[in-house]
Design brief:
Elements lengths: L11 H9 L2 E5 L5 H4 L9 E6 L2 H4 L5 E4 L2 H12 L6 H22 L10 H10 L20
Parallel strand pairs: 1-2, 2-3
Helix pairs in contact: 1-5
Length: 148
């Protein structure tokens, strides 16, 4: 279940669920202001931060778990056993994910208009260039700051 990125530059779906979460598991992130909304996006949640770097694992009043991401997630999975979230939460997450996917498709789809493509169309073209872009391939780019 993929809800997009979280934070100031994140998706409405991810931010909406994070705002109501009891626990947020942050894996491999430095939890900077863009990610946390200056600690406002999931202020009420218990934070569990899994990071290979002890300094980053112990940030933001969270419970730090120092480990490699893959090994740490495997260990947490074993500890949690068969635990699942409430059905209502899963349904809401699925609805938010579907709505976000529809939004992304609308933004990244081809327009039947003459002229240069806009940013979303370029991103869509990159996604469509790979047969595995929705399941395996990841392209990351950043401008370095919020757009002005």
């Amino acid at each position: 279940l993929q809800l997009g990125a979280i934070g100031v530059t994140g998706s409405p779906a991810a931010n909406a669920l994070a705002a109501q979460a009891d626990v947020v598991l942050a894996v491999g992130t430095r939890l900077q202001d863009f990610t946390t909304g200056s600690n406002s996006l999931f202020a009420q949640a218990q934070l569990v931060s899994l990071n290979v770097n002890a300094f980053d694992a112990l940030k933001r009043r969270g419970l730090g778990v120092q480990a490699d991401a893959t090994l740490g997630l495997q260990g947490l999975s074993r500890l949690l056993g068969g635990w699942h979230c409430a059905g209502q939460w899963q349904e809401r997450a699925q609805q938010e994910a579907n709505a976000w996917r529809d939004t992304v498709l609308a933004i990244t789809g081809k327009r039947e208009v003459a002229g240069l493509p806009y940013d979303g169309e370029v991103i869509g073209a990159v996604q469509r260039s790979s047969s595995d872009s929705t399941t395996r391939d990841i392209v990351v780019c950043a401008a370095g700051t919020l757009p002005a």
